[in-house]
Amino acid sequence: MSKLFEPAQLKQLDLQNRVVMAPMTRARTSQPGNIPNPMMATYYQQRATAGLIISEATQISDESQGYSFTPGVYTDEHVAGWKTVTQAAKQRGAAMFCQLWHVGRVSHPSFQNGEQPIAPSALKPVETQVWIADENGNGNMVDCVEPRAMSQADIDRVVSDFAYAAKRAIEAGFDGVEIHGGNGYLIDQFLRTNSNHRTDHYGGTRQNRMRFLLEVVDAVSDAIGADKVGVRLAPFITFKDMNCPDIVPTILQASKELQARDIAYLHLSEADWDDAPVIPESFRLELREYFTNTIIVAGSYTQDRADEILEKGYADLVAFGRPFVANPDLVSRLKHQQPLQQLDGATLFGGDERGYTDYPEYG
Ligand SMILES: Cc1cc2nc3c(=O)[nH]c(=O)nc-3n(C[C@H](O)[C@H](O)[C@H](O)COP(=O)(O)O)c2cc1C
């Protein structure tokens, strides 16, 4: 039998298999306040035969938002909403982590009380847009604007917002949190030379560019324990104006720091839609050498690719994104080699249960 269906250990957690549901924004919270709701609980419960579910990216504060209707995890209402979700997932055996998110410059003044979004440097991301909807759910893609460079006070505030949100996530019943350090959002913006032109100790050298990431990891670990912390990084992705020639060595160096902190896992975001570069074997070997705790991979995985990477030992768990949208019973379909349904791209973001909780199980 494929290793994918074997149980696994993630620090103190027992996972029922090695299939992970990748974090996926679906923009279906209740308004006002971006509150998780019973429809979301149904959606996650339907997919909770996975070993681990990573929630959709979730705001840590008002200012960390960049898209309409994405959830938060910092108010009492958020915590109450998420409790229903985490309980529903647990009933079917899945562990669940909350992906903590600050978008940085991938935002818009309409989420910032009319002010500029914040980022490491005042550099507008080219060809980068966010989705903004009115209260009826009718939305448009809108260009990002030039952000304001963060002061030390901004940095300190965001670090403590991450720690606060992590505590609230645990209170909401999550087994841990995943710090979103990839896909062109705030932490990634610090890591890369193209978006970080700072001249203080957060910019320039690799050690400086990873400082913000490590401050967040340390603050979150102090708040909830490093054994409940995962980090997502995207070494080969270049979308959202994130083409940085030094990102791969930066991430390899960061992986040693993360291992030293003994976090639960490192999660590689390997593909975004069609931006799915082939990852050299040398990178996987080097990463495995530096990071010996759990590695999760995500990006266009199939059963065959999953088996291969698990067999080689380059990863311990494999995350599936798009296949989980249209196949709530993905684990069973993979196990029994049943055909997969295709997702409907028109119902991914916002809307109701259509294209969300109405995808049928096999047969
Ligand atoms: C609808 C959708 C929403 C996504 N939202 C997030 C997100 O909130 N956080 C994140 O880290 N990645 C997000 N991703 C990326 C996925 O986690 C995953 O890395 C990507 O879809 C590649 O995996 P796949 O080929 O199995 O779909 C999203 C992907 C999709 C399709």
Automatic annotation (TrEMBL):
GO cellular component assignments: cytosol
Entry GO MF terms: FMN binding; oxidoreductase activity, acting on the CH-CH group of donors, NAD or NADP as acceptor
Cofactors demanded by this protein: FMN
Record key words, sorted: Oxidoreductase
Protein name per UniProt: NADH-flavin oxidoreductase
Keyword Ribosomal protein attached: no
Family according to the record: Belongs to the NADH:flavin oxidoreductase/NADH oxidase family.
SUPFAM superfamilies: FMN-linked oxidoreductases
Chain ranges of the NADH:flavin oxidoreductase/NADH oxidase N-terminal domain: 3-340
Record-linked CDD domains: OYE_like_FMN (cd02933)
